[in-house]
Specification:
Length: 496
Protein backbone atom coordinates (compact mmCIF):
# COMPACT_ATOMS: atom_id res chain seq x y z
CA UNK A 1 0.00 0.00 0.00
CA UNK A 2 1.49 3.34 -1.08
CA UNK A 3 1.27 5.98 1.67
CA UNK A 4 3.71 8.44 0.09
CA UNK A 5 2.52 12.08 0.37
CA UNK A 6 2.26 14.32 -2.69
CA UNK A 7 3.61 17.82 -3.16
CA UNK A 8 0.42 18.85 -4.93
CA UNK A 9 -3.14 17.46 -4.92
CA UNK A 10 -5.33 17.88 -7.97
CA UNK A 11 -8.91 19.11 -7.68
CA UNK A 12 -10.16 15.61 -8.47
CA UNK A 13 -8.04 14.12 -5.66
CA UNK A 14 -9.36 16.69 -3.20
CA UNK A 15 -13.00 16.09 -4.15
CA UNK A 16 -12.53 12.32 -3.98
CA UNK A 17 -10.86 12.72 -0.58
CA UNK A 18 -13.73 14.84 0.75
CA UNK A 19 -16.24 12.11 -0.11
CA UNK A 20 -14.12 9.35 1.40
CA UNK A 21 -13.50 11.28 4.63
CA UNK A 22 -17.28 11.56 5.16
CA UNK A 23 -17.58 7.78 4.79
CA UNK A 24 -14.64 7.38 7.16
CA UNK A 25 -16.50 9.57 9.67
CA UNK A 26 -19.66 7.48 9.36
CA UNK A 27 -17.77 4.22 9.98
CA UNK A 28 -15.97 5.74 12.96
CA UNK A 29 -19.27 6.97 14.40
CA UNK A 30 -20.89 3.56 13.94
CA UNK A 31 -17.93 1.98 15.73
CA UNK A 32 -18.26 4.45 18.59
CA UNK A 33 -22.03 3.98 18.89
CA UNK A 34 -21.64 0.21 19.15
CA UNK A 35 -18.92 0.18 21.82
CA UNK A 36 -19.02 3.25 24.07
CA UNK A 37 -21.14 5.44 26.31
CA UNK A 38 -24.15 3.96 28.05
CA UNK A 39 -23.74 0.62 26.23
CA UNK A 40 -20.23 0.17 27.60
CA UNK A 41 -21.46 0.98 31.12
CA UNK A 42 -24.26 -1.57 30.75
CA UNK A 43 -21.76 -4.22 29.58
CA UNK A 44 -19.45 -3.46 32.51
CA UNK A 45 -22.33 -3.83 34.96
CA UNK A 46 -23.30 -7.12 33.30
CA UNK A 47 -19.74 -8.34 33.88
CA UNK A 48 -20.03 -7.42 37.54
CA UNK A 49 -17.81 -4.33 37.48
CA UNK A 50 -17.83 -2.13 40.58
CA UNK A 51 -17.97 1.66 40.58
CA UNK A 52 -14.20 2.10 40.66
CA UNK A 53 -13.81 -0.23 37.68
CA UNK A 54 -16.43 1.75 35.77
CA UNK A 55 -14.41 4.85 36.63
CA UNK A 56 -11.35 3.18 35.10
CA UNK A 57 -13.28 2.48 31.88
CA UNK A 58 -14.40 6.11 31.70
CA UNK A 59 -10.86 7.39 32.28
CA UNK A 60 -9.18 5.22 29.61
CA UNK A 61 -10.03 7.31 26.50
CA UNK A 62 -9.01 10.46 28.39
CA UNK A 63 -5.76 9.19 29.91
CA UNK A 64 -4.51 7.73 26.63
CA UNK A 65 -4.67 11.17 25.00
CA UNK A 66 -1.23 11.77 26.51
CA UNK A 67 0.08 9.59 23.68
CA UNK A 68 -0.77 12.35 21.22
CA UNK A 69 2.83 13.38 21.87
CA UNK A 70 3.94 10.16 20.20
CA UNK A 71 1.89 11.05 17.13
CA UNK A 72 3.64 14.41 16.83
CA UNK A 73 7.02 12.68 17.14
CA UNK A 74 6.17 10.05 14.50
CA UNK A 75 5.00 12.67 12.02
CA UNK A 76 8.06 14.85 12.60
CA UNK A 77 10.32 11.79 12.11
CA UNK A 78 8.67 10.12 9.11
CA UNK A 79 6.76 13.04 7.51
CA UNK A 80 3.86 10.74 6.66
CA UNK A 81 0.58 11.49 8.43
CA UNK A 82 -1.50 9.08 6.35
CA UNK A 83 0.71 6.13 7.30
CA UNK A 84 0.55 7.02 11.01
CA UNK A 85 -3.23 7.62 10.97
CA UNK A 86 -4.20 4.56 8.87
CA UNK A 87 -1.86 2.02 10.51
CA UNK A 88 -2.88 3.15 14.01
CA UNK A 89 -6.54 3.11 12.95
CA UNK A 90 -6.20 -0.54 11.90
CA UNK A 91 -4.43 -1.39 15.16
CA UNK A 92 -7.18 0.39 17.13
CA UNK A 93 -10.02 -1.60 15.51
CA UNK A 94 -8.54 -5.11 15.89
CA UNK A 95 -8.98 -5.17 19.72
CA UNK A 96 -12.73 -4.64 19.25
CA UNK A 97 -12.94 -7.78 17.14
CA UNK A 98 -10.91 -9.63 19.78
CA UNK A 99 -13.44 -8.54 22.45
CA UNK A 100 -16.30 -9.91 20.34
CA UNK A 101 -14.53 -13.21 19.73
CA UNK A 102 -13.40 -13.43 23.35
CA UNK A 103 -16.96 -13.37 24.65
CA UNK A 104 -17.79 -16.41 22.52
CA UNK A 105 -14.51 -18.26 23.17
CA UNK A 106 -14.05 -17.80 26.93
CA UNK A 107 -16.52 -19.42 29.30
CA UNK A 108 -16.06 -16.60 31.80
CA UNK A 109 -15.33 -13.36 30.00
CA UNK A 110 -13.67 -10.99 32.48
CA UNK A 111 -13.73 -7.24 33.00
CA UNK A 112 -9.91 -7.21 33.03
CA UNK A 113 -9.79 -8.62 29.49
CA UNK A 114 -12.33 -6.02 28.32
CA UNK A 115 -10.38 -3.16 29.91
CA UNK A 116 -7.09 -4.42 28.42
CA UNK A 117 -8.47 -4.60 24.89
CA UNK A 118 -10.14 -1.21 25.20
CA UNK A 119 -6.85 0.26 26.43
CA UNK A 120 -5.20 -0.89 23.21
CA UNK A 121 -8.11 0.50 21.22
CA UNK A 122 -7.85 3.94 22.86
CA UNK A 123 -4.04 4.04 22.76
CA UNK A 124 -3.79 3.58 19.00
CA UNK A 125 -6.82 5.84 18.47
CA UNK A 126 -5.07 8.62 20.42
CA UNK A 127 -1.93 8.25 18.30
CA UNK A 128 -3.94 8.37 15.09
CA UNK A 129 -5.93 11.47 16.09
CA UNK A 130 -3.41 14.34 15.75
CA UNK A 131 -2.02 12.91 12.50
CA UNK A 132 -5.54 12.78 11.05
CA UNK A 133 -6.33 16.32 12.22
CA UNK A 134 -3.18 17.78 10.67
CA UNK A 135 -3.74 15.80 7.46
CA UNK A 136 -7.32 17.03 7.10
CA UNK A 137 -6.33 20.63 7.84
CA UNK A 138 -3.91 20.60 4.89
CA UNK A 139 -6.11 18.60 2.50
CA UNK A 140 -9.45 20.41 2.92
CA UNK A 141 -9.57 23.95 1.47
CA UNK A 142 -9.50 26.47 4.31
CA UNK A 143 -12.49 28.45 3.04
CA UNK A 144 -14.75 25.39 3.37
CA UNK A 145 -13.43 23.86 6.61
CA UNK A 146 -16.39 25.00 8.71
CA UNK A 147 -19.04 24.09 6.14
CA UNK A 148 -17.51 20.71 5.38
CA UNK A 149 -17.06 19.57 8.96
CA UNK A 150 -20.48 20.83 10.00
CA UNK A 151 -22.00 18.72 7.20
CA UNK A 152 -19.88 15.73 8.18
CA UNK A 153 -20.81 16.24 11.83
CA UNK A 154 -24.51 16.43 10.96
CA UNK A 155 -24.35 13.10 9.12
CA UNK A 156 -22.48 11.40 11.97
CA UNK A 157 -24.86 12.77 14.62
CA UNK A 158 -27.90 11.51 12.72
CA UNK A 159 -26.27 8.09 12.39
CA UNK A 160 -25.38 8.07 16.10
CA UNK A 161 -28.94 8.89 17.16
CA UNK A 162 -30.50 6.23 14.91
CA UNK A 163 -27.99 3.53 15.84
CA UNK A 164 -28.17 4.30 19.56
CA UNK A 165 -31.95 3.96 19.65
CA UNK A 166 -31.95 0.75 17.56
CA UNK A 167 -29.17 -0.86 19.65
CA UNK A 168 -30.91 0.08 22.91
CA UNK A 169 -34.20 -1.40 21.73
CA UNK A 170 -32.45 -4.63 20.70
CA UNK A 171 -30.72 -4.93 24.07
CA UNK A 172 -33.93 -4.24 26.00
CA UNK A 173 -35.77 -6.84 23.91
CA UNK A 174 -33.08 -9.49 24.46
CA UNK A 175 -32.86 -8.68 28.17
CA UNK A 176 -36.62 -9.13 28.54
CA UNK A 177 -37.03 -12.29 26.43
CA UNK A 178 -33.67 -14.06 26.41
CA UNK A 179 -31.39 -12.61 29.12
CA UNK A 180 -28.99 -15.55 28.79
CA UNK A 181 -28.00 -14.20 25.35
CA UNK A 182 -27.40 -10.60 26.42
CA UNK A 183 -23.60 -10.95 26.58
CA UNK A 184 -23.54 -12.57 23.13
CA UNK A 185 -25.40 -9.56 21.73
CA UNK A 186 -22.65 -7.30 23.05
CA UNK A 187 -20.13 -9.64 21.40
CA UNK A 188 -21.88 -9.14 18.06
CA UNK A 189 -21.85 -5.36 18.55
CA UNK A 190 -18.12 -5.29 19.29
CA UNK A 191 -17.33 -7.62 16.39
CA UNK A 192 -19.42 -5.54 14.01
CA UNK A 193 -17.78 -2.35 15.30
CA UNK A 194 -14.32 -3.76 14.62
CA UNK A 195 -15.21 -4.88 11.10
CA UNK A 196 -16.86 -1.54 10.26
CA UNK A 197 -13.82 0.23 11.71
CA UNK A 198 -11.45 -1.76 9.48
CA UNK A 199 -13.56 -0.84 6.47
CA UNK A 200 -13.25 2.79 7.52
CA UNK A 201 -9.47 2.41 7.77
CA UNK A 202 -9.36 1.01 4.24
CA UNK A 203 -11.45 3.93 2.94
CA UNK A 204 -9.14 6.38 4.73
CA UNK A 205 -6.06 4.75 3.17
CA UNK A 206 -7.38 5.77 -0.27
CA UNK A 207 -7.43 9.49 0.63
CA UNK A 208 -4.48 11.43 -0.80
CA UNK A 209 -2.18 13.38 1.54
CA UNK A 210 -0.36 16.63 0.76
CA UNK A 211 3.26 16.77 1.90
CA UNK A 212 3.42 17.88 5.55
CA UNK A 213 5.41 20.89 6.72
CA UNK A 214 6.61 19.89 10.17
CA UNK A 215 8.77 21.89 12.59
CA UNK A 216 12.28 20.50 13.07
CA UNK A 217 12.65 21.98 16.56
CA UNK A 218 13.19 19.80 19.62
CA UNK A 219 9.78 18.46 20.59
CA UNK A 220 10.38 18.93 24.33
CA UNK A 221 11.32 22.58 23.88
CA UNK A 222 8.34 23.18 21.61
CA UNK A 223 5.87 21.80 24.17
CA UNK A 224 7.28 24.04 26.91
CA UNK A 225 6.07 27.16 25.08
CA UNK A 226 2.42 27.05 26.23
CA UNK A 227 3.45 26.50 29.86
CA UNK A 228 5.55 29.67 29.79
CA UNK A 229 2.57 31.77 28.69
CA UNK A 230 0.97 32.98 31.94
CA UNK A 231 -2.51 33.67 30.57
CA UNK A 232 -2.66 30.38 28.66
CA UNK A 233 -1.44 28.60 31.78
CA UNK A 234 -4.37 30.10 33.71
CA UNK A 235 -6.74 28.75 31.06
CA UNK A 236 -5.16 25.31 31.46
CA UNK A 237 -5.72 25.45 35.24
CA UNK A 238 -9.39 26.42 34.86
CA UNK A 239 -10.12 23.92 32.08
CA UNK A 240 -8.38 21.09 33.95
CA UNK A 241 -10.19 21.79 37.23
CA UNK A 242 -13.57 22.14 35.48
CA UNK A 243 -13.11 18.89 33.54
CA UNK A 244 -12.00 17.05 36.67
CA UNK A 245 -15.06 18.29 38.59
CA UNK A 246 -17.56 17.26 35.91
CA UNK A 247 -15.98 13.88 35.32
CA UNK A 248 -16.46 12.96 38.97
CA UNK A 249 -20.19 12.71 38.22
CA UNK A 250 -20.79 12.49 34.46
CA UNK A 251 -19.57 8.89 33.85
CA UNK A 252 -21.88 7.67 36.63
CA UNK A 253 -25.10 9.30 35.47
CA UNK A 254 -25.89 6.26 33.32
CA UNK A 255 -24.94 3.95 36.20
CA UNK A 256 -27.33 5.85 38.46
CA UNK A 257 -30.21 5.56 35.98
CA UNK A 258 -29.51 1.88 35.27
CA UNK A 259 -29.01 0.71 38.87
CA UNK A 260 -30.80 3.13 41.19
CA UNK A 261 -33.72 4.10 38.96
CA UNK A 262 -33.87 0.76 37.08
CA UNK A 263 -34.62 2.51 33.78
CA UNK A 264 -34.52 0.50 30.55
CA UNK A 265 -31.53 1.21 28.31
CA UNK A 266 -33.79 2.59 25.58
CA UNK A 267 -35.17 5.25 27.96
CA UNK A 268 -31.66 6.41 28.85
CA UNK A 269 -30.62 6.61 25.20
CA UNK A 270 -33.71 8.65 24.32
CA UNK A 271 -32.89 11.05 27.17
CA UNK A 272 -29.35 11.40 25.82
CA UNK A 273 -30.76 12.08 22.36
CA UNK A 274 -32.99 14.81 23.85
CA UNK A 275 -29.89 16.38 25.38
CA UNK A 276 -28.05 16.25 22.04
CA UNK A 277 -30.95 17.87 20.21
CA UNK A 278 -31.16 20.66 22.82
CA UNK A 279 -27.46 21.34 22.30
CA UNK A 280 -27.78 21.34 18.51
CA UNK A 281 -30.71 23.78 18.62
CA UNK A 282 -28.93 26.26 20.90
CA UNK A 283 -25.31 26.12 19.77
CA UNK A 284 -25.92 28.76 17.09
CA UNK A 285 -27.26 31.15 19.74
CA UNK A 286 -24.23 30.59 21.97
CA UNK A 287 -21.91 30.96 18.96
CA UNK A 288 -23.45 34.26 17.91
CA UNK A 289 -23.07 35.77 21.35
CA UNK A 290 -19.55 34.39 21.90
CA UNK A 291 -18.44 36.04 18.63
CA UNK A 292 -20.17 39.30 19.51
CA UNK A 293 -19.09 39.53 23.14
CA UNK A 294 -16.67 37.14 24.89
CA UNK A 295 -16.27 33.44 25.56
CA UNK A 296 -15.66 34.05 29.25
CA UNK A 297 -19.07 35.67 29.56
CA UNK A 298 -20.75 32.71 27.84
CA UNK A 299 -18.99 30.24 30.17
CA UNK A 300 -19.98 32.28 33.22
CA UNK A 301 -23.61 32.13 32.03
CA UNK A 302 -23.74 28.49 30.93
CA UNK A 303 -21.64 26.96 33.72
CA UNK A 304 -24.07 27.91 36.55
CA UNK A 305 -26.85 26.21 34.57
CA UNK A 306 -24.82 23.00 34.54
CA UNK A 307 -24.05 23.33 38.24
CA UNK A 308 -27.76 23.68 39.03
CA UNK A 309 -28.40 20.59 36.87
CA UNK A 310 -25.88 18.58 38.91
CA UNK A 311 -27.69 19.61 42.10
CA UNK A 312 -30.99 18.71 40.42
CA UNK A 313 -29.78 15.13 39.98
CA UNK A 314 -29.95 14.80 43.78
CA UNK A 315 -33.75 15.12 43.61
CA UNK A 316 -34.28 12.55 40.83
CA UNK A 317 -36.16 9.59 42.26
CA UNK A 318 -37.40 11.38 45.36
CA UNK A 319 -40.96 10.82 44.12
CA UNK A 320 -41.51 7.16 43.35
CA UNK A 321 -43.44 7.69 40.12
CA UNK A 322 -41.96 6.79 36.74
CA UNK A 323 -43.78 9.52 34.79
CA UNK A 324 -42.65 12.25 37.20
CA UNK A 325 -39.05 11.04 37.17
CA UNK A 326 -38.96 10.82 33.38
CA UNK A 327 -40.37 14.34 33.04
CA UNK A 328 -37.81 15.65 35.52
CA UNK A 329 -35.00 13.78 33.74
CA UNK A 330 -36.12 15.22 30.40
CA UNK A 331 -35.90 18.77 31.81
CA UNK A 332 -32.48 18.01 33.29
CA UNK A 333 -31.18 16.60 30.01
CA UNK A 334 -32.46 19.59 28.05
CA UNK A 335 -30.68 21.95 30.45
CA UNK A 336 -27.53 19.82 30.24
CA UNK A 337 -27.58 19.95 26.45
CA UNK A 338 -28.07 23.72 26.39
CA UNK A 339 -25.33 24.37 28.97
CA UNK A 340 -22.89 21.89 27.44
CA UNK A 341 -23.26 23.48 24.01
CA UNK A 342 -22.28 26.90 25.35
CA UNK A 343 -19.49 25.65 27.63
CA UNK A 344 -17.77 23.36 25.13
CA UNK A 345 -17.99 25.88 22.32
CA UNK A 346 -16.62 28.72 24.45
CA UNK A 347 -13.79 26.69 26.01
CA UNK A 348 -12.70 25.60 22.52
CA UNK A 349 -12.96 29.15 21.18
CA UNK A 350 -11.08 30.76 24.05
CA UNK A 351 -8.28 28.23 23.58
CA UNK A 352 -8.06 29.13 19.89
CA UNK A 353 -8.18 32.82 20.77
CA UNK A 354 -5.39 32.71 23.35
CA UNK A 355 -3.09 30.45 21.31
CA UNK A 356 -0.53 32.45 19.27
CA UNK A 357 -1.16 32.00 15.56
CA UNK A 358 2.33 30.69 14.74
CA UNK A 359 2.31 28.01 17.48
CA UNK A 360 -1.44 27.33 17.64
CA UNK A 361 -1.14 23.57 16.99
CA UNK A 362 1.41 23.17 19.79
CA UNK A 363 -0.61 25.24 22.28
CA UNK A 364 -3.83 23.35 21.54
CA UNK A 365 -2.10 19.96 21.68
CA UNK A 366 -0.68 20.78 25.10
CA UNK A 367 -4.12 21.97 26.22
CA UNK A 368 -5.73 18.70 25.08
CA UNK A 369 -3.08 16.59 26.83
CA UNK A 370 -3.14 18.50 30.13
CA UNK A 371 -6.95 18.56 30.25
CA UNK A 372 -7.07 14.87 29.32
CA UNK A 373 -4.87 13.97 32.30
CA UNK A 374 -7.03 15.89 34.77
CA UNK A 375 -10.23 14.59 33.14
CA UNK A 376 -9.05 10.99 33.46
CA UNK A 377 -8.58 11.46 37.21
CA UNK A 378 -12.23 12.54 37.62
CA UNK A 379 -13.87 9.14 36.94
CA UNK A 380 -11.30 7.43 39.20
CA UNK A 381 -12.10 9.85 42.01
CA UNK A 382 -15.83 9.42 41.33
CA UNK A 383 -15.57 5.64 41.49
CA UNK A 384 -13.65 5.80 44.77
CA UNK A 385 -16.15 8.26 46.26
CA UNK A 386 -19.11 6.12 45.16
CA UNK A 387 -17.55 3.16 46.95
CA UNK A 388 -16.87 5.26 50.07
CA UNK A 389 -20.44 6.61 50.28
CA UNK A 390 -22.05 3.25 49.47
CA UNK A 391 -23.86 2.80 52.80
CA UNK A 392 -23.87 6.40 54.01
CA UNK A 393 -26.80 8.82 54.14
CA UNK A 394 -27.10 12.49 55.05
CA UNK A 395 -30.57 14.02 55.48
CA UNK A 396 -31.40 17.70 55.90
CA UNK A 397 -34.90 18.50 57.19
CA UNK A 398 -36.70 21.49 58.67
CA UNK A 399 -39.21 20.92 61.48
CA UNK A 400 -41.81 23.58 62.32
CA UNK A 401 -43.84 23.03 65.48
CA UNK A 402 -46.51 25.08 67.25
CA UNK A 403 -49.07 24.27 69.95
CA UNK A 404 -51.53 23.04 67.33
CA UNK A 405 -49.36 22.03 64.39
CA UNK A 406 -46.15 20.17 63.68
CA UNK A 407 -44.71 20.02 60.14
CA UNK A 408 -41.56 18.41 58.81
CA UNK A 409 -40.11 19.70 55.52
CA UNK A 410 -37.65 17.49 53.66
CA UNK A 411 -34.92 19.58 52.01
CA UNK A 412 -32.27 17.11 50.91
CA UNK A 413 -31.29 13.48 51.35
CA UNK A 414 -27.81 12.54 50.14
CA UNK A 415 -27.02 8.92 49.41
CA UNK A 416 -24.32 7.17 47.35
CA UNK A 417 -24.83 8.92 44.00
CA UNK A 418 -26.15 12.18 45.42
CA UNK A 419 -22.84 12.75 47.21
CA UNK A 420 -21.04 12.57 43.86
CA UNK A 421 -23.39 15.09 42.27
CA UNK A 422 -23.05 17.57 45.15
CA UNK A 423 -19.25 17.26 45.28
CA UNK A 424 -19.00 17.73 41.50
CA UNK A 425 -21.27 20.79 41.67
CA UNK A 426 -19.19 22.32 44.49
CA UNK A 427 -15.87 21.78 42.68
CA UNK A 428 -17.33 23.14 39.43
CA UNK A 429 -18.42 26.26 41.32
CA UNK A 430 -14.91 26.66 42.74
CA UNK A 431 -13.41 26.32 39.24
CA UNK A 432 -15.40 29.35 38.03
CA UNK A 433 -13.27 31.53 40.31
CA UNK A 434 -10.23 30.30 38.36
CA UNK A 435 -11.89 31.45 35.13
CA UNK A 436 -11.93 35.03 36.40
CA UNK A 437 -8.11 35.09 36.30
CA UNK A 438 -8.06 34.36 32.56
CA UNK A 439 -7.79 37.49 30.42
CA UNK A 440 -9.64 37.53 27.11
CA UNK A 441 -9.43 40.31 24.55
CA UNK A 442 -12.75 42.12 24.19
CA UNK A 443 -14.27 40.88 27.45
CA UNK A 444 -17.80 42.05 28.21
CA UNK A 445 -19.23 41.89 31.76
CA UNK A 446 -21.50 38.92 32.34
CA UNK A 447 -24.43 41.08 33.53
CA UNK A 448 -24.48 43.01 30.27
CA UNK A 449 -24.37 39.85 28.14
CA UNK A 450 -27.08 38.23 30.26
CA UNK A 451 -29.35 41.26 29.84
CA UNK A 452 -28.75 41.42 26.09
CA UNK A 453 -29.32 37.68 25.65
CA UNK A 454 -32.50 37.86 27.68
CA UNK A 455 -33.81 40.76 25.61
CA UNK A 456 -32.83 39.07 22.34
CA UNK A 457 -34.42 35.74 23.24
CA UNK A 458 -37.55 37.48 24.47
CA UNK A 459 -37.89 39.47 21.25
CA UNK A 460 -37.38 36.35 19.11
CA UNK A 461 -39.79 34.16 21.04
CA UNK A 462 -42.44 36.66 22.07
CA UNK A 463 -44.71 36.07 19.09
CA UNK A 464 -44.16 32.35 18.82
CA UNK A 465 -43.73 30.67 22.16
CA UNK A 466 -45.33 30.89 25.56
CA UNK A 467 -42.03 31.76 27.20
CA UNK A 468 -42.20 35.23 25.67
CA UNK A 469 -45.54 35.85 27.35
CA UNK A 470 -44.21 34.49 30.62
CA UNK A 471 -41.31 36.95 30.50
CA UNK A 472 -43.72 39.80 29.77
CA UNK A 473 -45.97 38.79 32.68
CA UNK A 474 -42.93 38.68 34.95
CA UNK A 475 -41.88 42.16 33.82
CA UNK A 476 -45.39 43.54 34.31
CA UNK A 477 -45.68 42.03 37.78
CA UNK A 478 -42.26 43.42 38.68
CA UNK A 479 -43.32 46.87 37.50
CA UNK A 480 -46.53 46.68 39.59
CA UNK A 481 -44.53 45.67 42.66
CA UNK A 482 -42.06 48.54 42.14
CA UNK A 483 -44.90 51.06 41.73
CA UNK A 484 -46.61 49.74 44.87
CA UNK A 485 -43.41 50.10 46.86
CA UNK A 486 -42.86 53.66 45.64
CA UNK A 487 -46.47 54.57 46.49
CA UNK A 488 -46.11 53.01 49.95
CA UNK A 489 -42.88 54.92 50.57
CA UNK A 490 -44.51 58.20 49.55
CA UNK A 491 -47.45 57.52 51.88
CA UNK A 492 -45.08 56.78 54.75
CA UNK A 493 -43.14 59.97 54.12
CA UNK A 494 -46.32 62.04 54.01
CA UNK A 495 -47.53 60.41 57.25
CA UNK A 496 -44.33 61.34 59.04
Amino acid sequence: MNFKPKEYLSEAEIQDGLKKVIWDGLTAEAMTALTSGTFLVALALLLGANNFEIGILASLPLATNVLQLLSVWLVSKYHNRRAVAVICAYLARIPLIIVGLGIFVFNEFSFVFLATMLSMHYIFGSIAGPSWNSWMKDMIPEQMLGTYFSRRGRYTQILNVVLSIVIALILDLVKARAPQNELKVYACFFGAAGVVGLIGGYILSKVAEPYPHVSENNIVQVFKLPLRNQNFRRLLVFNSFWSFALNIANPFLSVFMLTALKLPLSYIIILNVISQIAGILTINIWGKFSDRYSNKSIISLAAPIYIVVLIGWCYVGVINQLAVNLAFLAIIHIAMGVANAGINLSITNIGLKLAPKRDAIVFLSVKNIVVAISSSLGPLAGGALAAFFLNKTLSININWATDKLSSNYHLLSLQQWSFLFIIAAFLALVSLNLLMKVKELGEVPRKIVRRIMRTSIRNNLRDYFLIGNIIDIHDELSAIVRKSRRRLNRNNQEAT
